[in-house]
Amino acid sequence: MARNLRFLLLCALCFLAQESFGANPPTMAEVLAAAKSSDWRPLDPNNTLYVELPAGRVIIELSPRFAPRHVHNIETLARAHYFDGLSVLRVQDDYVAQWGDPDDSRSVPPGIDRVAPEFEAALAPQAPFTRLPDGDVYAPEVGFSDGFPAARSPRQHATWLIHCYGMVGVARDLDVQSGNGTQLYVVIGHAPRQLDRNVALVGRVVAGMPLLASLPRGSGELGFYAQNETRMPITAVRIAADVAPAERTPLEILRTDTATFAALIESRRNRPEEFFKTKAGRIEVCNVPLAVRAAPPAAHSP
Fold it and tell me: Which tens digit of pLDDT belongs to each residue from 179-188?
């Protein structure tokens, strides 16, 4: 009953959003232009990771709700400067870019232990979830939770993040407890949904994806760089809260529990632009854009 009520609420939000735009369905650009300030939320600096590359900054929003122990490890590693001076060691076409210690020679700081797999989390009734009504091949229900693409199974009382483009995961070996956060990957290709519930996802890239997706592909097996190939160095990895406010990148994320987001979904499900002659009528969870913008000056002025 509660799930049905949430679904009806989403439909009502979408209807109200369409009504506010009049008879002509809005484009995504028009939806975002009409968004209120309350439709956006700031990035939490305590759960934001800055990956500094020579070419610029990659910004990752972490999700402690879904993988608290892995996120704790990553934040501990960042504060110990573990990643500084390491490199991107693998770029596999249409799959992932991965970074870490290519030689496995760097000492892991104290407090970084083997982590039990956080491939899924217990389904909490109070956890936010905006259900996508279009269905899914891989999960009973899909949608968005705290701005992340997510899935859930009410029957199994489980929820998990989804391997969409830009999602960040913890690399591991066959041992499910071997992924302690020292090697991370980002999805740079078509969503490898077969990885869902098999790897711990810890967040998503909210800015800087071109810096990773455009890297040269490794020639070795699985896209690992050979010894004679140049690897992109990692200058530093920092928690945004540890960076001076003047040096942070102020961003806002579109909330996924609003009428504005419901209208954005519809603008992508049935594209209103003149170019599109046939309406799709459906949308896949990884094809729903999760909008990010620079925070207005008033939102981050001292």
Answer: 999 999 999 9
Number of H helices, E strands in the chain: 6, 16
Percent of the chain past pLDDT 70, that is, above it, reads 91
**Whole-model pTM above 0.85?**
yes
Question: What confidence tens digit (pLDDT) does each residue in 73-90 have?
Answer: 999 999 999 999 999 999
Number of CB atoms found within 10 A of residue 49's CB:
23
292: DSSP letter: E
Using CA atoms, how far apart are residues 22 and 31, in angstroms rounded to an integer?
12
Q: Could you give the number of structural domains in the chain?
A: 1
What is d(CA 233, CA 191) in angstroms, rounded to the nearest whole number?
Answer: 26
What whole-number distance in Å separates Cα of residue 104 and Cα of residue 86? Answer: 10
Question: 201, 66 in Cβ contact below 8 A?
Answer: yes
CATH number at residue 63: 2.40.100.10
C-alpha–C-alpha distance, residues 226 and 229, integer Å: 5
What the block records as the tokens of 243 is: 């960076």
For β-strands 201-207 and 167-170, DSSP reports them as antiparallel
